[in-house]
Design a protein that fits this description.
44% helix, single chain, 4-stranded mixed sheet, 2 domains
């Protein structure tokens, strides 16, 4: 797998750019994921000329929309400058595979950022002003915020999406019908595990590619729907269903003892007795032995969504 390129809030890389002159160095991001990714740092507040240290900003709801203002005097307004800077960054997103932002930040937060009402009572219902602009312009790019990367399910989901997006960005499969169909085929079991209705719906859309006039627009719409589906955290039952589907390929290749062992490992996972990696590893072993008979299966993203060394399928 080739190296990724990720946008990252500068403070998460250890840069002392926060309002108080500190940082929020995220060690998993730099020490673990950093082995597989190059990072492009961004700090919109510093970029628009706010000093270090500086008064923090807050988001307030007004009759003219959400505003980003100085939290001390509530009059110094940074809204347009943050929005214009975000608009200037949008073209750079074409070179990124994902983006990690600082949680809770009025400029960079992805969700549940405090938005103050007219009585200055906060509710965690907003996205940061800068990140909100980026997400509106590039809805397919995987975004995640630092605090959620401590959740094993969320971090695995993000890394998985980043690698799928990287595959799309670098291969550009939308250029021909065959490449797009091949790309979709590789995602079959991964997509089935995350969102079966979307898997069926996208498959139906790809059945009439010869009638598509604007292949680029079609590809972008496909990608947005695909990435939204993959952002769903799969339920245990959905994972078991996919494991059983893949197992079905080997009904004539495995001995009765091998089948029993595989079934047992899936049942153990279903009962929360072993992590997901246990039945997956056993399936990959049999694919290694018999995969030449199933080239379609060997190409499935589901089996190798990211480098095994990340160890993200270990949690039960």
């Amino acid at each position: 797998m080739t190296k990724l390129t990720l946008g990252v809030s500068s403070c998460l890389l250890g840069d002392e750019v926060r309002f108080n002159g500190g940082h929020k160095h995220h060690r998993w991001l730099t020490h673990t994921f950093g082995q597989y990714a190059d990072f492009v740092p961004y700090c919109p507040e510093v970029a628009i000329g706010m000093g270090i240290p500086r008064n923090p900003i807050r988001l307030i709801s007004t009759d003219t929309g959400t505003r980003a203002v100085d939290s001390m005097n509530l009059t110094d307004d940074y809204t347009e400058r943050l929005q214009h800077y975000a608009e200037s960054i949008v073209p750079q997103l074409d070179a990124l595979d994902g983006y990690v932002v600082m949680q809770g930040s009025p400029s960079c937060g992805m969700e549940r950022v405090k938005l103050y009402n007219k009585n200055m009572i906060p509710e965690k219902i907003a996205a940061g002003l800068y990140t909100g602009v980026l997400q509106r312009h590039a809805p397919a790019i995987p975004f995640e915020e630092s605090g959620r990367l401590s959740d094993p399910n969320l971090v695995e989901n993000f890394v998985q999406r980043v690698y799928v997006y990287h595959d799309w960005r670098t291969r550009q499969p939308w250029r021909t019908a065959k490449e797009l169909i091949d790309f979709h085929a590789r995602q079959k079991y991964l997509l089935m595990m995350h969102d079966y209705p979307t898997y069926k719906r996208l498959g139906q859309k790809l059945s009439n590619l010869k009638d598509i006039d604007n292949r680029g627009a079609f590809g972008q719409a496909y990608l947005v729907e695909l990435m939204a589906a993959l952002s769903n955290i799969p339920k245990r039952g959905h994972r078991v269903n996919v494991l059983q589907h893949v197992m079905g390929y080997f009904k004539n290749q495995l001995s009765e003892k091998e089948k029993a062992s595989l079934i047992h490992s899936i049942e153990q996972y279903q009962a929360s007795e072993v992590p997901f990696i246990v039945p997956v590893a056993l399936l990959k072993h049999y694919i290694f032995l018999h995969g030449d008979q199933f080239p379609y299966l060997m190409n499935q993203t589901f089996l190798n969504p990211y480098p095994e060394e990340l160890g993200l399928r270990n949690p039960i």
